[in-house]
Amino acid sequence: MNLSSCGIDCDACEFKVSENCPGCQKVKGKPFWAKDGGRCDLYICAEKRNLAHCGNCGDFACDMLKEWAKEGDGERIRNLENLIKINQNGG
Predict the structure, then answer these.
(1) DSSP β-bridge partners for residue 3
(2) Residue 89 placed within a domain
């Protein structure tokens, strides 16, 4: 699974093909939708904390992530929770 900072599975995302999006990790938080060349706030936050994604954060799941994850029926947070479980089990 190729997870973005916020928990989107970039390999399964519709924008991987339609927008030729490799995922936020590969573009350092400058997603295709930031037309002004801006960066994703969640990516910036994780980067400042030296984290690969929000699931590794002591503040998981913070209000900013919850707001961002409203889209997608909570899949983003579930992806991060599953990754946390895998990491806790030594996977």
Answers:
(1) 9
(2) no
| pLDDT per position as a tens digit, 33-68 | 877 778 999 999 999 999 989 999 999 999 999 998
E strands, the chain, where?
Answer: none
Domain that holds residue 15: 1-68
Burial of 17 (0-12, 13-18, 19+ CB in 10 A): exposed
Q: Domain total for the chain?
A: 1
pTM, entire model: 0.83
Cis preceding-peptide flag for 61 (omega within 30 of 0): yes
The alpha carbon of residue 15 and the mean position of all alpha carbons in its chain are separated, in whole angstroms, by 14
Question: Does 76 fall in a domain?
Answer: no
Decide: helix, strand or coil at residue 20. Answer: coil
Q: What is the mean pLDDT of the chain?
A: 87
Residues 81 and 88 sit within 8 Å (Cβ to Cβ): no
